[in-house]
Amino acid sequence: NHIAERIFAKYGVVQTQEEQAKGFWYTVYKHPEIPIYRTEGDKKDAALVSQGRVVIGGQGVNIGYRAKNQHDEKLERRVLHPQLEVFAVPGREFRYAHDWDSEQSTVWNVRREMVREAELIEERDCKTWRIPWDSEQGKGVDDLIGNHGPIAFERADQNAYPMEREIKMHYRGQYTQIKKRLNREDRQTTNDIAIYLEAMKDGDAMDGVR
After folding, report:
1. Residue 155 maps to a domain
2. CB–CB of 147/137 below 8 Å?
3. What tens digit of pLDDT does each residue of 11-26 get?
4. How far apart are CA 8 and CA 20, in angstroms?
5. Is residue 68 within a helix (H) or strand (E), and if so which, with residue range?
6. Which residues of 125-154 are buried (b: 16+ CB within 10 A; e: fewer)?
């Protein structure tokens, strides 16, 4: 309760009787001015909660969306996890505090999954942000807070930038990867149309456009 009170005070929320009766998550749902923080792993989730943030976490960076149905069949378009989608209402901010890794392949994988989720959230008139810090300060947000204290996290949160930057980096990288792969396969035609078709084959129906 004391953490909930701290969160509501931070964002100027005064609970109604109905909100008090229905609990914390109902109150968050009713107040899109309260941002949702995204990370993955119990320790990281708890570290953010300790700083008075509302966190929807989980095990893995790709848990926020679905690419297959319950029969393990590929969906034409990816969809948000329903327990995340319910909070993706117009005006809400989603702030991503996923790991900052030094290994490039891990950086690529984290960015891809984060971008895919953020795109679906932005379709619902929400804003998405990436929280930056130096990987030398700690790979995870729990390491950042543990090694350098709450002020280091507050500074990182204030320096968050729009997810658009990560989205552009992801698709530039994907374009280059597909082009290199087609060249290695010695395709007769390696142009933007060929890359567009490969992107849709690799992802969902919109990946070629993206």
Report:
1. yes
2. yes
3. 999 999 999 999 999 9
4. 12
5. strand 65-68
6. ebbbbbbebeeeebbbbbbbbeebeeebbe
pTM of the model: 0.91
State phi, psi for 42 to the nearest 5 degrees: -60, -45
Which residues is 93 bridged to in the sheet?
A: 127
Q: How far is CA 34 from the centre of its chain?
A: 16
Helix (H) or strand (E) holding 78: strand 74-80
Alpha-carbon distance of 126 to 119, in angstroms, equals 10
Is position 14 within any domain? no
Treating both helix axes as pointing N-terminal to C-terminal, what angle do 150-158 and 141-148 enclose, rounded to 10 degrees? Answer: 130
Q: How far is residue 119 from each of residues 13, 28, 77, 83, 116, measured CA to CA in Å? A: 28, 22, 12, 17, 5
Q: How confident is the model at residue 61, as a pLDDT? A: 84
CATH number at residue 129: 3.40.1360
Using CB atoms within 10 Å of the CB of residue 121, give its burial: 0 to 12 exposed, 13 to 18 middle, 19+ buried.
buried
179 in any annotated domain:
no
> For residue 83, how many C-alpha atoms fall within 13 Å in the half-sphere facing its CB?
8
Q: For residue 20, give the H/E element and its range.
A: helix 17-22
Domain count, the chain: 1
Two tokens, residue 41: 């792993």
Beta bridge partners of 127: 93
